[in-house]
Amino acid sequence: MKKILSVLLGLLGLYLVGRAIAEPFIIDVGDPTSYHLDWGGPSLVGVLAVHCLPGVVSAVLLVVAARRWSRGRASQPQVQA
After folding, report:
1. Where are the transmembrane segments (predicted)?
2. pLDDT value for 75
3. How many domains does the chain divide into?
4. Which structural domain, as residue segments, surrounds residue 37?
5. What is d(CA 32, CA 44) in angstroms, rounded to the nearest whole number?
6. pTM of the full predicted structure?
């Protein structure tokens, strides 16, 4: 169950990172009418904060989790059959 939850959270994190990368290219930053009704609007800073900050936080958490996982794997003794 823990492994399934970890995979689902990892997929959610990757989705948020992808969305954060794509958001500045999806909206027209030169045209406020393209984002003024979005969450965080009507300002561009608010829209980018709402849509990109979860991706930044997810990226940091994914890196921390990957480093913990790799350190845990490196410290385990190798069992030979």
Report:
1. 46-66
2. 72
3. 1
4. 2-67
5. 7
6. 0.79
